[in-house]
Records
---
Amino acid sequence: MTDETLKDARPAGRRGSEAVTMEEVARVAGVSTITVSRAISAPHKLSAATLDKVNRAIERTGYVPNLVAGALASSRSRLVAAAVPLISNPVYAETIHGFIAPVKEAGYQVLFGESGYTESEEEALIAAVLSRRPDGILLTGVRHSARCRRMLLSAAVPVVEIWDLTQTPVDVVVGFSHEAVGETVAAFAAEHGYRAFGVVSVDDERAMVRKASFARALARRGLGPLHDATFPGPASLQLGRDGLSALIRDGFADGVVFCSSDVLAQGVLTEALARGLTIPGQVSVIGFGDQSFARATFPALTTVHIDRASMGRCAARKLLDRIRGAAVPDRVVDVGFAIVERESTRRR
Amino acid sequence: MTDETLKDARPAGRRGSEAVTMEEVARVAGVSTITVSRAISAPHKLSAATLDKVNRAIERTGYVPNLVAGALASSRSRLVAAAVPLISNPVYAETIHGFIAPVKEAGYQVLFGESGYTESEEEALIAAVLSRRPDGILLTGVRHSARCRRMLLSAAVPVVEIWDLTQTPVDVVVGFSHEAVGETVAAFAAEHGYRAFGVVSVDDERAMVRKASFARALARRGLGPLHDATFPGPASLQLGRDGLSALIRDGFADGVVFCSSDVLAQGVLTEALARGLTIPGQVSVIGFGDQSFARATFPALTTVHIDRASMGRCAARKLLDRIRGAAVPDRVVDVGFAIVERESTRRR
DNA sequence: ATGAAAGCGCTAACAA
DNA sequence: TTGTTAGCGCTTTCAT
């Protein structure tokens, strides 16, 4: 009977949640809720005595602040969203790893999602993410559907794009030029005196840009032909092996193969060894990414180095700057790349 | 003047945010806010005509629901938290990848954090995460500080632990026995007739369990000695190379080396080749994880296969079941492991 | 099938 | 330095 009365006495709208609230802490500490709020988010604004009282009360009650309520009240979620196509791809995982540290340091948490390799997936993700009202968003790539751009723009949220470069970023871009990669690798191959050229690639957008740029730069030099083995992704060792087989079937011999990732390159290496071809004598191989295993393949892989963790960190700093409303003079940051020459290509 | 009046007419407490709200949509559609709410979360409860009106209004206004407000009102955040020690470790990245798909499918988003390799980091992460009121939490490992367990328990949130096994999970555990791995590898080594044994390992908790179990199982068989090269993590190729060097310095020769990861194993392979040792003639190597590159090392790596993506998927399904309040009969799920024999160990 | 009222737990604005 | 008041934008409960 008493119990029922208590239940009925409860205000109409709601079932009570059992969690300790700020009001409870305030009662225990003998202060108002705003004072508890200040003890947490602006302790320097309170007298030492009050702060102490509140902290004791927090301790005693086991209070865990509710950031959902806080975010609603303040319109700041202290959440940043991060999207990469596929987290199981180590190059993206390392970027995210680099991104996380400064973000956490600044008191933000990460809402993570995979954007896949299609526009519709990215659109769905962005729509979902925006409904959480993140304070900032990290996006992979610079090509987004019109709908994506519209959503981002009307949300007026800071955005950093990574892994590519453009003069017209949504907001800020931190990456490198895939065109330049293609050209630089072509120049490298030309300087080394190769006469036959192959590409083993997955069909992802940025890989296609590198391939096209590589092809153009070779053509400009009158070099060729370029044998092409492009597969629907994702990359795997087997795909690399298949790639070299396809090139050889196509007439490729005694030349250099530029791969769209180190994993593919390792597959090419493996297939070459299995066929008894000498490396770099008969087949030379260039990878992309410089993943940690690249220096330890047999033979060690010549590849294009990208500093992924540092790109992630830089993106995080830029995003935090934008969130804080700080001036961000360079909206286009080129983090560059470098060819690392190892044993899978012949020396000049 | 008119403008100022409008500004002043605004209710006291708050600066207005510019975003379209549900109230705005309701006005445009000529219905109440609750009807808009239903159009989004329970469309079947509305008449076709009303639903259509509301959808038009949503379209016209470009309304993006505010899940922060929704979460506060409903006490359901539609957010699940996921923590792994280090996302740049591909084995964890692949687990997260497997975890994400069913979670997204069910309409949840992922709050992601790195728990590092220390209890204090995990505590800080869990405290931060709980303040977001996630509907469920994924945690790596089964050892958590008392404070962590207390926080989780008093939050009364569904939890799935992965990558290990215990009879006393916080809630549900999906993993495999590292003890069993150590024993199985020892049995494998014994059956293959090895007489000398080495371990190259990083000092992470679960790796230490495998090592200890491996050592015990060898001792039980009267086999030994066990040469040990354990390093503070994280694993790298160079560490693997250093590991084999250390073992050899310690007197190891003509035997098998069990590594705490495939990356380390690849380093051991590399160092052995560099020293002109034959594999598996003079040095045999067993890895752990069966990462994609393991089948393509030279020689191909014998290793312990863990199905990481499937572990992630299984964990997601269990967590969603718990969130939905469904019966979860098995709170301890053993996903097992298997030794994959390749060329880096001699055949019996 | 639809709506009115109440309130989730917190913080901004203003006052003292 | 501390408190009062008003609401952030949504969903619950209950009524019609």
---
Amino acid sequence: MSEKDDFDLQYFLPYMLNQAAEESSIAFQRHYKNRYGMLRTEWRVLFHLGRYGEMTAKEIGERARIHKTKVSRAVQKLADRRFLTRKKDENDRRSERLELTQAGLAAYRDLRGVAQEYDAKLVSNFDPEDVATLRRLLARLAG
Amino acid sequence: MSEKDDFDLQYFLPYMLNQAAEESSIAFQRHYKNRYGMLRTEWRVLFHLGRYGEMTAKEIGERARIHKTKVSRAVQKLADRRFLTRKKDENDRRSERLELTQAGLAAYRDLRGVAQEYDAKLVSNFDPEDVATLRRLLARLAG
DNA sequence: AGGTAATAGTTGATTTTGTAACTAACAACC
DNA sequence: GGTTGTTAGTTACAAAATCAACTATTACCT
């Protein structure tokens, strides 16, 4: 380059976020993938239902910002594997109330435990104050 | 839930990173997508060549941690669109030296400018010290 | 009430990614 | 110098994501 070029890709925030996100997902991914044959979206749906209780596909999509077709297919797979049940909302028969089965709840609890441990491990070498800053800024960046 | 459940998905680091990464990518994505018909991997390849100069597909893949098939396809598209040229490395005829054309360089410079502005805008409401912390931790999380 | 628009969710077609197997060139070793 | 093992990159096939069109139901509006 003949010109000044001090913009390094390694400091471009969207790029850094992506690299960190991918790296930090890999190890955890193995758990829901190998142990329960789940995809990321399926895990997220499971997690939402486990953590926040019964809700509709739409609500999950809004909370997690997942497109409705992705949610729809994830719900289908989870239902096929008997991790959740669907029943028509009698007040609005377009939508369905989704609820985890015992098996789904068990999977959720298992994965939640793994996630907690994994999260702790990820930040274990960092200064707790820095971690607080990290989470705060990430939350704001996520919008 | 009848049990104690204080693990919130919103504080699970891989999840937060993903949400922040996606959100922060959207606005910038439009530029390389609409203006140059590029995909994310193509933009990254372009960026590496523009920022660091001529190199091989393998080097790009290592630096950016992109799988070689993805790099291969991105290089193909960039070559089709005359953003880069490939010539066999005479010392090792398995690999190719990749180099941006004038058009590629122009696109790089354009997008680099947009990226710089965008990065600045993303952090403009944050305390600079917090931003420094953020980048430092992200770099470590990216491994 | 009747017609139009909006919404929840699904499905199908297209695009993109991921995985594995492949080719061509090089390296190492005897 | 030939066999075996690696490496750079491509290609083919399968899996998954995206986008648009669709069904069924509800809301709105006059």
